[in-house]
Specification:
Blueprint lengths: L1 H12 L6 E4 L7 E4 L4 E4 L8 H17 L6 H10 L2 H14 L1 H4 L1
Parallel strand pairs: 1-3
Antiparallel strand pairs: 2-3
Helix pairs in contact: 1-2, 2-3
Length: 105
């Protein structure tokens, strides 16, 4: 399922590069991206989210890859907003944080 959602996120963001998704416990976040390895790592807790929420997380991480930065730059937000307009992105992040708040504390 995760691979299918990743492919959908790649299509929606028009991301052309190679990228893999891995599930591994993360100590301080729910997802991270490795520019060096072209890998998105998600915490196992992410698998309890809805498919739309997982899609948002993968779009978010692909936006970092596409923008070439770990920062939430204007280019980063431009990529995210192609899929999730700003208001919806903020709502999605709030919803994910509420669901996974124990993980993020």
């Amino acid at each position: 399922m995760l691979e299918d959602v990743l492919e959908r996120a790649k299509e929606l963001t028009k991301y052309q590069g190679e990228v893999r998704v891995k599930v591994r416990p993360l100590k301080t976040s729910i997802a991270r991206v490795s520019f060096r390895h072209g890998t998105i790592t998600v915490d196992p807790s992410v698998l309890n989210l809805s498919e739309e929420e997982i899609l948002y997380i993968l779009v978010h991480e692909l936006a970092h890859l596409k923008a070439g930065t770990v920062y939430h730059s204007s280019l980063f937000w431009e990529v995210v907003s192609q899929v999730f307009p700003k208001e919806i992105a903020v709502e999605m992040e709030d919803r994910i944080i509420l669901k996974l708040r124990k993980k993020l504390v």
